[in-house]
Design a protein that fits this description.
The protein is 9% helix and 48% strand. The protein has 419 residues and is mainly beta.
């Protein structure tokens, strides 16, 4: 019996001991949980410039017990960010918000960082925009007037820059529906203004003095842009392989077939016709008599594509080089027509669309303003950022009478830029 009693006491002791150990384990678990709950993810520390001229400043985030970060510029809706973060910013005041994420999706408080981006280049002079009407296309300047084609109405407007008013309207082409993807263009040469109707398939000739239309010429499918040289006016068919040549004296038209072209721009210079072609993006040197392709220059900018709008948009010649805008890459290409050297330059402050050459510079129209580039190097030498009310939409540009003339399709404005 004594042995049985000793066994019973031993079992009770062991049982009580196990219960005690279990209680201690539960207590320790609770203490661990409490300790974890008492140590939340730390608030982010943000390193990087607060005042900068960089278009794409770099920032670094750090926080105690952080597994990842969420951040955003100028928005309270945060997205997943790397610990090293950068974003292209327009000049002005910005707000960077950063939050750290820890275990079990624990969130830190939000760090708010003010950032000021300053313009890195000399400021150009931009006059107040002149309202000309929605659908403003590629302008032309000559003899103290600026001529603006209205894509949506098929009209050519004559603007007096001094009085800032539209002095005449001439119906020269077909009207196009808003948002239809058409773009009319104008060109001044040899005492005439030439206006291409993208949707109408015609090119009108207008007397630069009287403003009267003197000719209407059939120009195939979608004449998307104009250039002059070699005694002729030239137009390309948008995304097509045909080019229309119009004798600038007689008005006689001829069609040249450029094999393999999907045209998006045209220029004349150094005795050759230059065609900007899509899919893939490239510049074609074309014989102006036969239409044969003499040389092909693929456009492969060494920058990442930042959008999916269009690889190449416009072409211009001047000062011994052809310039092409590359909206998806935020860049321009410069092709020396003598040496065939091809170089690229980033275009800060918006995506580039139109380009013109004059006054010893290349002038680029972006969706946020006008950028002036050195015509030899492509380095920016000045910028005019337009008010937010003048931004957005396709932008076009021409140079004449000592100024660059910028049109905004959606806003229907004409802006003079000089400096």
């Amino acid at each position: 019996m004594c042995k049985e009693m000793r066994a019973t006491h031993r079992e009770k002791f062991l049982r009580n001991t196990c219960l005690g150990l279990g209680a201690i384990a539960l207590l320790l678990t609770g203490m661990t949980t409490a300790t974890a709950a008492a140590a939340p993810v730390g608030a982010p520390k943000v390193s990087g410039p607060r005042n900068t001229t960089l278009e794409q400043p770099q920032y670094r985030f750090r926080a105690a017990r952080a597994l990842s970060f969420r951040c955003a510029f100028d928005s309270k809706r945060l997205h997943v960010c790397r610990a090293r973060f950068s974003q292209r910013l327009l000049p002005g005041k910005h707000t960077l918000r950063v939050r750290a994420v820890g275990r079990r999706r624990a969130l830190s408080r939000i760090a708010v960082v003010p950032v000021v981006v300053k313009v890195a280049y000399p400021l150009l002079t931009a006059a107040a925009p002149i309202q000309v009407g929605a659908g403003a296309g590629v302008p032309a300047a000559a003899g103290g007037s600026v001529w603006v084609p209205r894509t949506e109405t098929g009209e050519l407007e004559r603007v007096d820059p001094t009085t800032r008013s539209v002095t005449s309207r001439t119906h020269v082409g077909a009207s196009s529906p808003a948002g239809g993807g058409f773009l009319d263009s104008a060109l001044a040469t040899d005492g005439s203004i030439w206006a291409a109707s993208d949707s109408g398939g015609t090119i009108a000739r207008v007397d630069a003095v009287s403003g009267a239309q003197t000719e209407t010429i059939q120009a195939g499918t979608r004449p998307g842009g104009l250039t002059a040289g070699g005694g002729a006016v030239w137009a390309f068919g948008f995304q097509g392989s045909d080019v229309t040549r119009i004798d600038s004296v007689t008005g006689a038209a001829q069609t040249l077939h450029v094999t393999g072209a999907g045209a998006a721009g045209i220029a004349y210079g150094d005795g050759a016709l230059w065609v900007l072609s899509l899919a893939p993006a490239r510049i074609l040197q074309v014989d102006p008599v036969s239409g044969a392709v003499r040389a092909t220059f693929p456009l492969k900018p060494p920058f990442p594509s930042t959008s999916s709008l269009i690889d190449a948009w416009w072409l211009a010649y001047g000062d011994g080089a052809v310039w092409a805008t590359l909206p998806n890459y935020g860049a321009v290409a410069r092709l020396d027509t003598g040496t065939h050297a091809l170089r690229y330059a980033r275009t800060p402050y918006g995506r580039p669309f139109g380009v013109a050459v004059g006054g010893g510079s290349a002038w680029v129209a972006t969706d946020h303003g006008v950028l002036r580039l050195d015509s030899s190097t492509g380095h920016p030498t000045g910028v005019a950022l337009l008010p937010s009310a003048s931004r957005s939409g396709f932008a076009s540009i021409a140079f004449g009478d000592g100024s660059a003339w910028f049109t905004n399709y959606d806003r229907g404005t004409l802006t003079a830029v000089s400096g």
